[in-house]
C-alpha cells in the first residue's frame, strides 16, 4: 500500500526548485515558503454525495467549509505551536495558516528549511511562485458603442446573448466574481452592479491585495475592469456585459506579479466572504480567472488544486482563460490545463469572429495532466477574444484582444443559466456549456476549440428545460450508409454522419429542432424532431440520389455577422430564389452548369458572385460577403468641413425622434404661425454655424431654421439656396394654420435646443388636410458636446413622414460651395437613406468626442432641523467623474409650481390680422384684473398695487445715465439676448438671459417685436414675457432703454426712459421700470406716464396660454407714481428654493455648487420631505432624487435604552413635546426598518424577547421618516 505522503513529491528540496530560492537569499534574508499538510481525503467526495441527495447548494457550502476548517484545525494544531516557538525565537515570521488548502505560509531563514521538512505534519515545502495576469493587446480606448452594434457589442452578438435575454434571463439575483487587477467601482456601467452599493458591507464585497489598499473597488491597471464589464457591465443604451442585471464582488490580487499565498488568501475570502459558513447569499455562484502560472512550477500540480476542488464543492463554478501562448500545441497555462475530470480546470480559449476561426494566439491543448486521452483535450470551449469591447478606466470603454476576455463571457453566460435554474450545481452548469457549444473546425472534440464555440442561447435553453440527445442514421434509398452534413436550421449547430451514416448531438429539450441533411449526389432532406429531457430521439433519414448539384453556403453581412434573411437569386433564372436562415446559411438545388449568384440584404449592399460551378451530384459550398451599402456611410465633407451622418452609418447618431409637444407630455412652447410664417427666437446658448456665431434664429413654418433673416418660401429648391445661412431638416409646403404645432424647447439637462414640427399638415388648398409630418432640428450646446472647431452639432430627427418626395433636406451657408445635400424631391444622395420614422441625421464638421459623463451628488441626503420662521442656506455639489462634460438641471418642490402640462392646446393656429401701425382696431376690449389679496393663482402667482396695499411701496430710482444703455434706437426693436446677474425663476423654467423690446415688454424666449398688444392669454408670441407696459413705443423719436444691477438690493432693473408712443408728440413720454428679484418676484414701477395710451397690456406670460397673469388689458389700472408687485407667495409649511446652480455644464472631473435655501414657515413639529430632482446628460443616472428632511421645532433625540430581564424587553426614551412616537424594528440583514408600534404616547414600551433572531429597535416622532439600519 502506498501512503498518501509517498504519493506527494517529497518537497521542492528534492527537485532543486526551492534550492534556487535559497541560493538567491543572502545573509539573514528570509525566504517565503508554504508548508503543505495532508489534505482531507474525503471532504469533496462526501460533500458531492450530500449535495447530490439534497440539491441544496447552501448546505453543500456549509458542509464543505466546515469540513475543510475542521480538518485544518486538527492537522495544523501541533505544527502551529512549533512554529510559534520558532517565531518567538526569531527564526520564522509572517506565519499564516490556510484551511482552503491545508497549508501554512511563512518566512524563514534558509538554513531552517531542512528542519521544517522533517516535521511529521509537513508533506511538502513549496516555494512562493509568481502568478500573472494573462497579457492582452494594448486596450484601444473608445466611447459609447457604434450604432452598428445594434445596442450590444459584437462579442455579445457572437455568443447569442441577445437571444438568451429574450428568454427573460439577464442575471437577476446572481452573484459573480473575478480575481484580477481589481475593478473600477465608480465606472457608470459597473457602479450599480457592485454588491457593496446594494446594501451589503463593503468588506464582504471587495478584497484588496494591491497597493494602495482601498475600501471600495479600484483598479490601477484596467485589466480587471475590462473582464468584469464583460460579465455584468451595463450603461444606458450601452450593453457590454452578458448578465447585465447580475451583481458582482471582486478580489484585487494581481498587478504585475502575485503569489500563491495571495491566491490562497483570495480563495479563502471568496469561499466565505462574511465569515459565516451557514450563509450562502454572500458567495458568488461563478468565479472568472484570467491569470495562471507560466513556468517555474510543476506543470500538473500545485497547491491551488485543493482550493479549486473546495470551491466547486462549495457551490462555485470556476472558469479559466486558456492563455495567449498559441498557436503551438501544448501551451495551456496551469491551472487551465488541469484535467482531473471533464470540468476541472475549465478552460475557455479564444475565438476570432473576424476570420471565423480559433484566435491565432489562443493556447492549445493537449494537456499533459491526464492519461485519459479525452480529458487531455483542451480547451473545453472557445469564446470571442479578438477586439472585444468592454468597460475601461475612467468612464469610457476600450477594445482589446486576449483569452482574458473569453472566460468572463463564459462566466456571464453561467449567470444567465443560474437564473434559469438556480439548483444546477457547478459541474452540471459547466457540462451544459460544453454540450451546447457550436462545433468548430474538424467535427468533434479537438485541441483547438474543444467542444466548440460558446452559445449562450442554447446553454440557457438547456438550463431551463434540460438536455436531450438526437441519434440518427443517414442512408440512401438502397439502405447504404451516407456520410453527410447535418445542420440545425435557424441555429448555428451542425454535425456530420460518420462512414456508417451515424451521427449524435445533444440538444435542449422542447426547443424546436429541424435538421437539414446535405450529401453529394443526393437531394437535401429536412426533418422536424422533438427532443425530451434526459432522453434520446432517434431518426433515420433516407436521401434520394440525384443528378442535380447542390449549392450551399454562408452569407456574412457588412458588419462581419451572419446575414439573416439575405436575398439570393440566380441571375440566369430569376425565379430560382432563396433566403438565408438565422445563421446566414442557405441551400439551393440546381441543374449542372455555371451560374451568377446575386445576394443582397436590407442593411448592407449587394454583391454578385460570378462563375459558380455546379456539378452533377456534387455539393458546392461558398461564402458570400456583403459589402457596405453606400447609404450606410457618412457624406463627403463640403469645402468648409461639414458632413452628414445618419443613424445607419458607422459612428452616426444614436438618438431618435421624441416629441416635445405638450400633447405628448413634453414642455415645448407652441408657436402658432401663419401659413408661410416665421418667428424669431432667442437662442439659450450661442450657436456657431460655418464659423459664425449667432444668438438668434428664425423658426420658419415650412421646415427651415435660418440665421440672419427669415426664409419662408414654400416652393422648395435644390441646394444651394443662397438666401441666408440655414438648416433644412425638411423644407416642404406646410400649413401650421391648418393644425399641428410648431414648437421650441430648451432642455438644460441635455444641453439641447429643439425646434419641432409636430403633426404639421402639408399644405392643401381645400381643407381639411390629409397628411401631416413629424420632425425636429436639435441643436447641441457647444459646452456639452464640444468640438475642436467651435461649430455646434445639429441633428435632424424624423418621426412619421408620410410623404418625402417633395422636400429638400441639407444645410447651406449661402456662400460659394459650402453646402451639403441629403435629399431633394425623393432623390437621395448616395450616402443617404430616405427620411422616414426612426431616421436621424447628424450635422457636424468633425467626429464627436467619445466618452460619457458620470454624475455624483454630494451629499445625497440631508436632515435639517429649523424652528418656525427660520431659514438656512447651504449647498450640495454636482461632481462629474466622467470623461466628457455633464449637463444637469435641478428643480425643487413645491416652489416650482407649473400650469397643467396636459392641457388641451388649440388644434389650429389662429390667423392674426394686425391693424397697421398708428391705427387702433375697430373694437378694443378693456379690462383690469381684480385684486387677489395675495391668493396665488394656479401657477402660484399673486399681485397687489401700491395704491391699495401698504406693504407695496412706490419708490422710483432712475437708472438713466447710471446703468447700461441697451442701445435700442429703432422703432419696433428687440435686443439680442443679454445676461441676467442671477438665475430668474419664471413659471416652470429658470432663465439666465433676457431680451428687451422697445414696445414695453421683456421676453426670455422670443425675439418678436409686436407693436400691437395682445391679451396675455393669446396663443402667440411673445412667450415667457413680462409686459411692463406693452404698447407701441417709438424710441427712434426719443428716449432710451437702460439696464442696471442693483447689487446692494440684489435686484435687476430695466427702464424704458422718456419714450413717446408711436405717433405721439416727442414731449409726451412714458417712463417705467420692470424690476426682477432672484426669488422670481417682479415690481412694475411707473414714474410719469405723460401720454394717455388706449392700447396697453400689463401682466406676465409663460409658455402656454394657461400660464398667464393679466393685470390689465386696455384698462385704466396703471397711473403715474405707482408700483405693481407680482410675487409667488410661499404658502407651504416649509419650502426649498434653489438660489443658484439650477442648471449648468460641469467639465470632466469638475464640480458645480448648487446653493439651496431651506425655510420653515410654520412647521412646528414633525418632519417634512423636501425633494430635489436632478435630471442630467448622464443616462445611467436618470432622474436623480436628492432626499432632504426638514424637522420642524425642537429636534427629537430619543437616547433609547433597551433592557432585558426574564424574557422581557423594555424600551425607554427621552420625552419630546410632541408626545407621540413610532417604534421601529429590523432584522440584522434588513435594509429598512418596519413599524412595530405606529403610535404611542408613553416614553416606554415592553415586549417579549423575539425568538427568531437578534433585532434592532428605534424610536422616532410619529409621522417622521423611518430610520436607516446601521445609523
Which key phrases capture this entry?
7-stranded antiparallel β-sheet, Immunoglobulin-like, 1271 residues, 8 domains
Summarize the structure.
The protein is built from 14 helices and 78 strands. It is mainly beta. The two termini are 62 Å apart.
What can you see in these coordinates?
The chain is mainly beta and 1271 residues long. It folds into eight domains: 4-128, no CATH class; 140-464, Peptidase S8/S53 domain (Rossmann fold); 466-543, Immunoglobulin-like; 549-628, Immunoglobulin-like, CATH 2.60.40; 632-844, no CATH class; 855-895 and 1132-1192, Immunoglobulins (Immunoglobulin-like, Sandwich); 927-1127, no CATH class; 1201-1261. Helices cover 11% and strands 34% of the residues. The strands form 17 sheets. Strands 7, 8, 11, 13, 15, 16, 17 and 18 form an eight-stranded mixed sheet that branches. It has a seven-stranded antiparallel sheet with strand order 35-48-44-43-42-41-36, with no helix packed on it. Helix 9 (223-232) packs parallel to helix 12. The two termini are 62 Å apart.
Amino acid at each position: 500500500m502506498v501512503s498518501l505522503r509517498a504519493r506527494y513529491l517529497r518537497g521542492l528540496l528534492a527537485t532543486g526548485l526551492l534550492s534556487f530560492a535559497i541560493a538567491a537569499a543572502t545573509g539573514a534574508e528570509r525566504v517565503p515558503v508554504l508548508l503543505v499538510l495532508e489534505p482531507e481525503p474525503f471532504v469533496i467526495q462526501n460533500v458531492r454525495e450530500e449535495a447530490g441527495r439534497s440539491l441544496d447548494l447552501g448546505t453543500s457550502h456549509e458542509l464543505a467549509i466546515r469540513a475543510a476548517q475542521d480538518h485544518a484545525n486538527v492537522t495544523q494544531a501541533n505544527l502551529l505551536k512549533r512554529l510559534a516557538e520558532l517565531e518567538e525565537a526569531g527564526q520564522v515570521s509572517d506565519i499564516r495558516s490556510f484551511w482552503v488548502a491545508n497549508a501554512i505560509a511563512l518566512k524563514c531563514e534558509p538554513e531552517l528549511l531542512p528542519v521544517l521538512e522533517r516535521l511529521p505534519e509537513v508533506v511538502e515545502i513549496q516555494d512562493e511562485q509568481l502568478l500573472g495576469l494573462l497579457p492582452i493587446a494594448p486596450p484601444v480606448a473608445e466611447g459609447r458603442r457604434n450604432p452598428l452594434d445594434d445596442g450590444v457589442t459584437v462579442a455579445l452578438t457572437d455568443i447569442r446573448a441577445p437571444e438568451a435575454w429574450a428568454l427573460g434571463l439577464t442575471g437577476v439575483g446572481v452573484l459573480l466574481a473575478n480575481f484580477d487587477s481589481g475593478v473600477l467601482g465608480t465606472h457608470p456601467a459597473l457602479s450599480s452592479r457592485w454588491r457593496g452599493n446594494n446594501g451589503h458591507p463593503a468588506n464582504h464585497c471587495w478584497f484588496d491585495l494591491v497597493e494602495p489598499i482601498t475600501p471600495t473597488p479600484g483598479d490601477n491597471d484596467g485589466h480587471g475592469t475590462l473582464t468584469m464589464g464583460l460579465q455584468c457591465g451595463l450603461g444606458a443604451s450601452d450593453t457590454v456585459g452578458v448578465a447585465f442585471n447580475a451583481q458582482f464582488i471582486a478580489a484585487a490580487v494581481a498587478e504585475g506579479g502575485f503569489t500563491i499565498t495571495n491566491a490562497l488568501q483570495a480563495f479563502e475570502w471568496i469561499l466565505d466572504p462574511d465569515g459565516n459558513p451557514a450563509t450562502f447569499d454572500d458567495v458568488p455562484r461563478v468565479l472568472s480567472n484570467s491569470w495562471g502560472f507560466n513556468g517555474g512550477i510543476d506543470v500538473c500540480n500545485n497547491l491551488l488544486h485543493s482550493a479549486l476542488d473546495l470551491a466547486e464543492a462549495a457551490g462555485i463554478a470556476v472558469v479559466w482563460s486558456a492563455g495567449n501562448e498559441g498557436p503551438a500545441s501544448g501551451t495551456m497555462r496551469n491551472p487551465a490545463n488541469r484535467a482531473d475530470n471533464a470540468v476541472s480546470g475549465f478552460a475557455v480559449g479564444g475565438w476570432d469572429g473576424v476570420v471565423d476561426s480559433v484566435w491565432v494566439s489562443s493556447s492549445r491543448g493537449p494537456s499533459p495532466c491526464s492519461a485519459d486521452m479525452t480529458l487531455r483535450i483542451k480547451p473545453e470551449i472557445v469564446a470571442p477574444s479578438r477586439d472585444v469591447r468592454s468597460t475601461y478606466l475612467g468612464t469610457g470603454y476600450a477594445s482589446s484582444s486576449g483569452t482574458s476576455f473569453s472566460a468572463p463571457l463564459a462566466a456571464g453566460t453561467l449567470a444567465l443559466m443560474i437564473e434559469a435554474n438556480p439548483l444546477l450545481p457547478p459541474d452540471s452548469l459547466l457540462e451544459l456549456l460544453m454540450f451546447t457549444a457550436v462545433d468548430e473546425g474538424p467535427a468533434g472534440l479537438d485541441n483547438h476549440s474543444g467542444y466548440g464555440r460558446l452559445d449562450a442561447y442554447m446553454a440557457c435553453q438547456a438550463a431551463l428545460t434540460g438536455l436531450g440527445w438526437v441519434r440518427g442514421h443517414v442512408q440512401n434509398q438502397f439502405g447504404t450508409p451516407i456520410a453527410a452534413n447535418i445542420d440545425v436550421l435557424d441555429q448555428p449547430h451542425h454535425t456530420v454522419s460518420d462512414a456508417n451514416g451515424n451521427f449524435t448531438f445533444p440538444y435542449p429539450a422542447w426547443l424546436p429542432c429541424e435538421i437539414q441533411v446535405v450529401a453529394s449526389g443526393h437531394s437535401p432532406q429536412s426533418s422536424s424532431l422533438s427532443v425530451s429531457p434526459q432522453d434520446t430521439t432517434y431518426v433515420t433519414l433516407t436521401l434520394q440520389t440525384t443528378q442535380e448539384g447542390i449549392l450551399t453556403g454562408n452569407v456574412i453581412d457588412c458588419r462581419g455577422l451572419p446575414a439573416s434573411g439575405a436575398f439570393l437569386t440566380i441571375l440566369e433564372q430569376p425565379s430560382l430564389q432563396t433566403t438565408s436562415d438565422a445563421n446566414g446559411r442557405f441551400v439551393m438545388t440546381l441543374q449542372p452548369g455555371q451560374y451568377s449568384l446575386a445576394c443582397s440584404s436590407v442593411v448592407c449592399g449587394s454583391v454578385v458572385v460570378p462563375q459558380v460551378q455546379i456539378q452533377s451530384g456534387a455539393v458546392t459550398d461558398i461564402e458570400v460577403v456583403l459589402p457596405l451599402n453606400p447609404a450606410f456611410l457618412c457624406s463627403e465633407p463640403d469645402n468648409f468641413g461639414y458632413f452628414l451622418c445618419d443613424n445607419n452609418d458607422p459612428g452616426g447618431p444614436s438618438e431618435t425622434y421624441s416629441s416635445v409637444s405638450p400633447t405628448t407630455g413634453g414642455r415645448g412652447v407652441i408657436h402658432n404661425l401663419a401659413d408661410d410664417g416665421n418667428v424669431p427666437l432667442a437662442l439659450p446658448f450661442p450657436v456657431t454655424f460655418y464659423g459664425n456665431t449667432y444668438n438668434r434664429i428664425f423658426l420658419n413654418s415650412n421646415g427651415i431654421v435660418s440665421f440672419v433673416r427669415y426664409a419662408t418660401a414654400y416652393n422648395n429648391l435644390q441646394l444651394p439656396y443662397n438666401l441666408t445661412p440655414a438648416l433644412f431638416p425638411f423644407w416642404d409646403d406646410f400649413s401650421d394654420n391648418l393644425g399641428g404645432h410648431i414648437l421650441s424647447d430648451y432642455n438644460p439637462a441635455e444641453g439641447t435646443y429643439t425646434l419641432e414640427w409636430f403633426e404639421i399638415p402639408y399644405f392643401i388648398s381645400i381643407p381639411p388636410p390629409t397628411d401631416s409630418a413629424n420632425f425636429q432640428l436639435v441643436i447641441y450646446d457647444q459646452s456639452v458636446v464640444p468640438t475642436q472647431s467651435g461649430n455646434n452639432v445639429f441633428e435632424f430627427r424624423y418621426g412619421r413622414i408620410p410623404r418625402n418626395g417633395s422636400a429638400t433636406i441639407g444645410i447651406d451657408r449661402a456662400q460659394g460651395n459650402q453646402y451639403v445635400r441629403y435629399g431633394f424631391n425623393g432623390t437621395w444622395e448616395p450616402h443617404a437613406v430616405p427620411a422616414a420614422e426612426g431616421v436621424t441625421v447628424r450635422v457636424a464638421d468633425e467626429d464627436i468626442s467619445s466618452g460619457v459623463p458620470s454624475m455624483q451628488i454630494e451629499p445625497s441626503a440631508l436632515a435639517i432641523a429649523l424652528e418656525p420662521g427660520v431659514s438656512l442656506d447651504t449647498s450640495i455639489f454636482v461632481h462629474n467623474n466622467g470623461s466628457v462634460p455633464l449637463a444637469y438641471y435641478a428643480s425643487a418642490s413645491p416652489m416650482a409650481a407649473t400650469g397643467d402640462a396636459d392641457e388641451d392646446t388649440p388644434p389650429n393656429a389662429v390667423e392674426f390680422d394686425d391693424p397697421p401701425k398708428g391705427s387702433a382696431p375697430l373694437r378694443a376690449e378693456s379690462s383690469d384684473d381684480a385684486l387677489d389679496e395675495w391668493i396665488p393663482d394656479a401657477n402660484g402667482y399673486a399681485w397687489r398695487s401700491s395704491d391699495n396695499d401698504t406693504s407695496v411701496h412706490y419708490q422710483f430710482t432712475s437708472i438713466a445715465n447710471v446703468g447700461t444703455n441697451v442701445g435700442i434706437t429703432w422703432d419696433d426693436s428687440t435686443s439680442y439676448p443679454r445676461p441676467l446677474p442671477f438665475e430668474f425663476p419664471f413659471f416652470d423654467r429658470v432663465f439666465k438671459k433676457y431680451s428687451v423690446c422697445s414696445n414695453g415688454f421683456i421676453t426670455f424666449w422670443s425675439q418678436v417685436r409686436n407693436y400691437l398688444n395682445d391679451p396675455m392669454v393669446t396663443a402667440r408670441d411673445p412667450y415667457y414675457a413680462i409686459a411692463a407696459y406693452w404698447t407701441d413705443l417709438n424710441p427712434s423719436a426719443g428716449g432710451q432703454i437702460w439696464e442696471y444691477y442693483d447689487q446692494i438690493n440684489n435686484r435687476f432693473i430695466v427702464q424704458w426712459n422718456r419714450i413717446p408712443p408711436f405717433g405721439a408728440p416727442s414731449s409726451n413720454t412714458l417712463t417705467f421700470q420692470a424690476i426682477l428679484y432672484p426669488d422670481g418676484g417682479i415690481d412694475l414701477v411707473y414714474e410719469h406716464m405723460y401720454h394717455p395710451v388706449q392700447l396697453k397690456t400689463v401682466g406676465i406670460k409663460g409658455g402656454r396660454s394657461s400660464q398667464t397673469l393679466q393685470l390689465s388689458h386696455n384698462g385704466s389700472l396703471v397711473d403715474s407714481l405707482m408700483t405693481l408687485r407680482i410675487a409667488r407667495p410661499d404658502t407651504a409649511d416649509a419650502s426649498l428654493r434653489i438660489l443658484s446652480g439650477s442648471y449648468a455644464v460641469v467639465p470632466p472631473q469638475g464640480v458645480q455648487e448648487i446653493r439651496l435655501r431651506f425655510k420653515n414657515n410654520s412647521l412646528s413639529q414633525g418632519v417634512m420631505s423636501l425633494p430635489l430632482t436632478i435630471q442630467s446628460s448622464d443616462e445611467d443616472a436618470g432622474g436623480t432624487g436628492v432626499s432632504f428632511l426638514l424637522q420642524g421645532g425642537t429636534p427629537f433625540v430619543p437616547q433609547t435604552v433597551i433592557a432585558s430581564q426574564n424574557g422581557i424587553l423594555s424600551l425607554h426614551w427621552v420625552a419630546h413635546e410632541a408626545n407621540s412616537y413610532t417604534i421601529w424594528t429590523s432584522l440584522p440583514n434588513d435594509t429598512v426598518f418596519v413599524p412595530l408600534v405606529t403610535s404611542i404616547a408613553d416614553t416606554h414600551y415592553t415586549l417579549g424577547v423575539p425568538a427568531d433572531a437578534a433585532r434592532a429597535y428605534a424610536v422616532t416622532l410619529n409621522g417622521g421618516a423611518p430610520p436607516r439600519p446601521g445609523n
